[in-house]
C-alpha cells in the first residue's frame, strides 16, 4: 500500500496506483465525476429551495472561522445562512457577513431552548466546531446538538476534538466529520504517523464502524462513506495550507448538503470545488500569498468552470 499512501500524502503524482477494478471501492474524484451534481436553478425557485444552513462556530479570538463558514456557504448557493454565535464575536460576524442571519447568545448563561429554536429548528443542516476552541461549555453544546438534532450534522475542528466516540453510538442523523490528520489521530487516540500508514483502510474502517461520513483533509483529501467507499480528491495545492482553509470547506460542505444533493455526492463535489477554487487562487495570487478568503473569492469561478 506504500505507493497508495504516497499519492494521498502528496509525495507522488502517480495516480495510477488507484486502478479501478483492482479495488473498486476506491476511486478518484475528477471533473467528470462531479460536473452533473450542480443543476441549473429552476425558474420558479425561491431561497427556501436552496436550503437553510445553520452554523454554531467561532469564539473569542476566532471570529474569522465563523465568517469563513458563513461566506463560503453563501457563495456555494445556500438560500439562507445563519450564524448562531457567542456575543463576544457577534458584532464582528454580523458586520463581516452581511447576507447571513445572525443570533447571539450569552456563553456564560446559554439557554438550550434558544439553541433549539434558533439553530436546530431553523436549519436543514447544521455545522459546528470551526473556531470553537475558546468557547465555554462547548462540549455540552455539542452533546445537546447531537442528541437533539435530526438533520445532518457537519462536525469540524473543536467539534472533533470534543467528540467522545460514545457520542457516535446510535446517532439518528447523518454525521459528517471533517478532521485533518492531527484531529483524526486524536480521535483514534494514536499519533499522526499511525494514521499516515494505510490511510484508506483506517479512514474507511472508522467511517463504517461509527456510521459516519468522513472527510479526511490533507494534500489529497479522502471522502469516505459508511458503506466502505472512498474517494480521493484530485484538486488543491500547498497554497491551501493556510489558516482558515478548513473553515471554508466546512461552509461549502454544509451548503451543498443543505441544497439536498445526495450526501456522498455533496461531499465529493464540495471537496473538489474547494480544491479547484484554491487552484484558481494559486494561479492568480500564487501559493505563498493565497489566504483562506481567496478560496471563497475564487469559488464562483470554480463553480462556473465545473458546470460549464
Ligand atoms: N481565523 C480563525 O478564526 C481561525 C480559526 N481556526 C480555528 O482554530 C482552532 C485550532 O486550530 P489550530 O490550527 O490552532 O490547531 P489544529 O488545527 O487543532 O492543529 C493543531 C495540531 O494538529 C496538527 N495538525 C494540523 N494539521 C495537520 C495535518 N494536516 N497533518 C498532521 N497534523 C496536523 C498540528 O501538528 P503540527 O503543526 O505540530 O505539525 C498540531 O499538533 C480550530 O478550532 C480552528 O477552526 C483555524 O482554522 C485558523 C483560523
Ligand atoms: N498541501 C496541501 N495540498 C492541498 N490541500 C491542502 C494542503 N494542505 C492543506 N490543504 C487543505 O487545506 C485545508 C486545511 O484545513 P484545516 O487543517 O482544517 O485548516 P484550518 O483549521 O486552518 O481551517 C484542508 O481542506 C486541506 O485539504
UniProtKB/TrEMBL annotation:
Its EC number is 4.2.1.136. It is an enzyme of class 4 (lyase). (6S)-NADPHX binds at residues 65, 131, 180, 247. InterPro entries: Carbohydrate_kinase_pred_CS (IPR017953), CARKD (IPR000631), Ribokinase-like (IPR029056). SUPFAM superfamilies: Ribokinase-like. Pfam families: Carb_kinase (PF01256). Gene3D superfamilies: 3.40.1190.20. Residues 30-306 form the YjeF C-terminal domain. AMP binds at residues 217-221, 246. PROSITE patterns: YJEF_C_2, YJEF_C_3. GO terms for molecular function: NAD(P)HX epimerase activity. Its cofactor is Mg(2+). It catalyses: (6S)-NADHX + ADP = AMP + phosphate + NADH + H(+); (6S)-NADPHX + ADP = AMP + phosphate + NADPH + H(+). CDD domains: YXKO-related. Catalyzes the dehydration of the S-form of NAD(P)HX at the expense of ADP, which is converted to AMP. Together with NAD(P)HX epimerase, which catalyzes the epimerization of the S- and R-forms, the enzyme allows the repair of both epimers of NAD(P)HX, a damaged form of NAD(P)H that is a result of enzymatic or heat-dependent hydration. PANTHER family: ATP-DEPENDENT (S)-NAD(P)H-HYDRATE DEHYDRATASE, ATP-DEPENDENT (S)-NAD(P)H-HYDRATE DEHYDRATASE FAMILY MEMBER. Homotetramer. NCBIfam families: yjeF_cterm. Belongs to the NnrD/CARKD family. This is ADP-dependent (S)-NAD(P)H-hydrate dehydratase. The gene is nnrD.
